[in-house]
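STRUCTURE:
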């Protein structure tokens, strides 16, 4: 399945990202909570890698949860890494492609929030991440699989949903230890705010083969003033590298 990986868009969005990252913040908090539950059940990790770290939303939470752990943060966008270093000065940052990076040693935990959907082959990428884990290591991942309310909004307004096609839950059944889909709802002041939020977080790159929205239809949407409630379906999954 073809995916886009718009590094440039994310790099440009670094200064405005956090102010518009409502869904990303909600998912990051849930993901770190899930990580905390795994820590209760297993040995405490001594090394953690945040893949597709962005501005460090997950990195900051992990730093609070595991103040004595070695924390690495990886992203392909240098401006995002700069924001992460500002948020967590002690973190070791790595500028690299999340699809094929190599580490000088394995890590105990890999965490990635809202990044896997941008990979050209999400399943193969996740397999690669598992190879970077120590024996018994765990990867905890959050990835969007659907935004049904936005799809319905587009259909009701006669326009194409141009957001990228997300991976499906079944894509990961062969590799995942656990799979859970949770709903996260964000209320935007109006449709314009939703679209601006996507742009200001770098997530506005359209899916391949989509057609530009007709100017008249877009203008009508941007004039709407009613709040827009958008529900994101987020898949939370874990992958283990052998027995713990």
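SEQUENCE:
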């Amino acid at each position: 399945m073809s995916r886009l990986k718009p590094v440039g868009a994310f790099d440009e969005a670094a200064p405005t990202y956090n102010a518009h990252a409502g869904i990303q913040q909600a998912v990051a908090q849930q993901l770190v909570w899930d990580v905390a539950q795994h820590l209760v059940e297993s040995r405490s990790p001594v090394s953690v890698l945040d893949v597709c770290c962005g501005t460090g939303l997950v990195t900051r939470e992990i730093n609070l949860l595991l103040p004595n752990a070695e924390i690495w943060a990886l992203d392909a966008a240098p401006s995002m890494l700069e924001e992460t270093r500002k948020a967590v000065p002690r973190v070791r940052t790595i500028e690299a492609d999340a699809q094929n990076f190599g580490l000088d040693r394995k890590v105990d935990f890999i965490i990635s929030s809202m990044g896997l959907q941008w990979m050209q082959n999400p399943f193969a990428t996740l397999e690669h991440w598992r190879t970077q884990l120590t024996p018994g290591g765990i990867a905890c991942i959050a990835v969007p699989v659907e935004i049904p309310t936005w799809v319905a909004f587009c259909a009701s307004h006669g326009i194409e949903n141009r957001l990228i096609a997300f991976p499906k839950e079944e894509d990961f059944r062969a590799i995942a230890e656990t799979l859970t889909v949770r709903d996260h709802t964000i209320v935007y002041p109006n449709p314009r705010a939703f679209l601006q939020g996507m742009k200001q977080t770098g997530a506005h790159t359209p899916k391949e083969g989509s057609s530009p929205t007709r100017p008249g239809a877009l203008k009508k949407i941007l004039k709407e003033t009613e709040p827009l409630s958008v529900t994101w379906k987020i898949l939370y999954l874990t992958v283990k590298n052998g027995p713990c």
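REMARK: The two ends are 32 Å apart (CA to CA).
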